């Protein structure tokens, strides 16, 4: 099974403010005709999303239409997670190590996981379960916040696949975790 990360960071490496807010991210990117930075193609390639409770709660706070449609989503948490009734058919809560989660989803036939959320990404990376990373750097410094990366048990070598820059200043790099 393949597991990938597709995420944006501030230029100083944060995925959110200390309180989890992502108000510094560009808005309007999901409007028709607007550059989506490869997001739709990426989403079409995954069959499950895996995110931590904090990320799930941030996404829920957006209100409006659920951004992941009918895509299956697993919320990782050591405590039970309240799933809104409208999402009960596609969202579920699981507890366990990254490897246990991957094994469980593989038993269900999962082929490609989209791993999201700082702690979740860090845990899957440390366990050697991420194969691809797409990181889009937003040209803003927010000074403090929740970092994308944290301590790792050993060096994790990455192979650079490509880097693209966009007219609005965003820079997107794709990496493959070296075997």
Outline the structure in words.
This protein is an alpha/beta fold. Strands 5-4-3-6-1-7-10-9 form an eight-stranded mixed β-sheet, sandwiched between helices. The mean pLDDT is 93. Helix content is 20%, strand content 31%. The longest helix is centred in the middle third of the chain and has 10 residues, at 98-107. The protein is built from four helices and ten strands, in the order ββαβαββαβαββββ.
**Sheet with most strands:** 8 strands, mixed
- Give the % helix: 10-25%
Strand content: 25-35%
In the sheet with the most strands, the strands line up as 5-4-3-6-1-7-10-9
Number of helices: 4
Low-pLDDT windows of residues: none
* Morphology: globular
- Which structural class do the helices and strands define? alpha/beta
* Rg: 16 Å
Average pLDDT figure:
93
- What string, H for helix and E for strand, traces the elements in order? EEHEHEEHEHEEEE
End-to-end CA span? 14 Å
Provide a short characterization of the protein structure.
This protein is of the alpha/beta class.
Show the helix and strand layout.
Elements: E1 2-10, E2 14-16, H1 39-45, E3 48-52, H2 53-61, E4 72-76, E5 91-94, H3 98-107, E6 112-116, H4 118-126, E7 132-138, E8 146-147, E9 158-165, E10 171-177
Parallel strand pairs: 1-6, 1-7, 3-4, 3-6, 4-5
Antiparallel strand pairs: 2-8, 7-10, 9-10
List descriptors.
179 residues; alpha/beta; two-stranded antiparallel ribbon; 4 helices; 20% helix; 31% strand
């Amino acid at each position: 099974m393949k597991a990938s990360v597709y995420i944006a960071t501030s230029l100083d490496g944060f995925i959110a403010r200390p309180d989890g807010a992502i108000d510094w991210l560009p808005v309007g990117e999901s409007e028709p005709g607007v550059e989506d930075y490869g997001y739709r193609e990426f989403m079409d390639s995954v069959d499950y999303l895996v995110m931590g409770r904090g990320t799930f709660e941030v996404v829920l706070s957006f209100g409006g239409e659920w951004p992941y449609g009918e895509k299956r989503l697993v919320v990782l948490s050591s405590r039970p997670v309240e799933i809104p009734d409208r999402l009960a058919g596609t969202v579920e809560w699981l507890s366990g190590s990254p490897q246990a989660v991957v094994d469980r989803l593989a038993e269900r036939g999962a082929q490609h996981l989209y791993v999201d959320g700082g702690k979740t990404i860090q845990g899957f990376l440390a366990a050697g379960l991420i194969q691809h990373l797409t990181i889009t750097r937003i040209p803003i410094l927010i000074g403090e916040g929740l970092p994308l990366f944290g301590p790792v048990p050993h060096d994790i070598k990455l192979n650079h696949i490509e880097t693209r820059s966009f007219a609005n200043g965003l820079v997107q790099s794709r990496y493959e975790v070296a075997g």
